[in-house]
Amino acid sequence: MELKLNYIDGEWKEALGGGKREVINPATGELLAYTTESTENDTIEAIAAAKRSFYKTRQWRDTDGQDRSDMLLKIADIMEKYKDELAKLDTLDNGKPLRESEGDVSDAIHCFRYYAGLITAPSGYTYEVNNGFGKMHSYTVAEPVGVIGQITPWNYPLLMSVWKLAPALAAGNSVVFKPSSNCPLSTVKLFEIFEEAGLPKGCANLVLGSGGSVGHTIAASPDVDMVTFTGSTKVGQSIMSDAVGNLKKIGLELGGKSPNVIFADTDIDSAVEWAMIGTFFNQGQVCSACARIYVQEEIHDEFVEKLVKKAEAMTIGNGLDNPDIGPLVSESQMNKVLGYIEKGKAEGAKLMCGGYRVTDGELAKGYFVRPAVFDNCTQDMTIVKEEIFGPVCSIVTFKTEEEAIAMANDTQYGLAGAIFTNDSARAIRVMKEIRAGIMWINCCEPTFNQAPWGGYKMSGIGRELGVYGLEEYQEIKQVNINLNKGVLGWYEN
Ligand code: NAP
Question: Which CATH class is domain 3-254+459-479?
Answer without folding.
Answer: alpha beta
